[in-house]
Amino acid sequence: RKQGRRIKRKTQKETDTSDQASELPPRAFVFSKGKVSAPLKALVNDLKGVMSPNTARALKAQRRNKIKDFVDVAGSLHVSFFLIVSSTEQSSYLRLVRSPRGPTLTFRIRSYALAADLAATLRRPYSAGNAVWQSNPLLVLSDFDQSQQEQSLAATMLRNLFPPINVQTLQISACRRIVMLHQRPAEEGGGVELRQYVIKAAPTNVSRGAPRSSRIKKLTRGNRVPSLGRYGSMADYLAGRGGYSSESGGETDDDEKVDLPQDYVGRGAVRDQRVGVRLHEIGPRLSLELVKVQEGVCDGAVLF
């Protein structure tokens, strides 16, 4: 105090140190830039699901927004990556940007399938609940050649998009999704393919007749008799043709069966239970071609 008045010595709160910031999981903004079609806007929403929960699902970029606007707010929100979807008359592109100083990888989108497109091709599509998006996915990188500089950089950037796994503290109940990134060989056209799957575990010692008999009770409830005209016999109906496949893990191969060390999500998936592990693709599905590597944020010099 000076002459009865308090002297203000601290003008602002201390910010997080670099060590504390490094402990945070990587976060990403996913948005479109410029004029894009409705399917590409839907692709942006699907990519937000891939990056969940470490992304802003409600983020919407305006036409007047510049890349600099996102860079300015990224530091305070601990956002380290941008995934930017854009389109030209020739092709569509996905840019992977490391904020705030780059580098920037530009991928040409060769082809893509939305989550809704994949669901439309299935008789019984898997519906992912909200709990699936609340945990980080497991990342699988396949066939990236570390001796090639551009593939090595791409693998490093893609790996840093997702938080690393701590095996000592990992709870397997949080492992609900898998994101696979596969580098295709040159003789097959090259490029990177992205797939996303949901993990399901079903007990292997459940009788196949039990779940089907329960389905028959549900179908015949209220005097509603199921149509059997497309089946040759009742045996064909009970065998699960027409989409009524078993939910048991007994149909999986031996190399797909494991003993659970912890409780998992699903009926009967408890500790020490032998289960069959299945993957259900939920999309999106992308085929990408790396066309440019820049040293800055979208507008730097071309490295390769």
TrEMBL record:
Residues 1-11 have a biased composition (Basic residues). PROSITE patterns: BRIX. Residues 26-299 form the Brix domain. InterPro entries: Brix, PPAN-like. GO terms for biological process: ribosomal large subunit assembly; rRNA processing. One of its GO terms (molecular function) is rRNA binding. Transmembrane segments: none annotated. One of its GO terms (cellular component) is preribosome, large subunit precursor. It comes from the Eukaryota. Residues 1-24 are annotated as: Disordered. Pfam families: Brix. This is Brix domain-containing protein. It comes from Emiliania huxleyi.
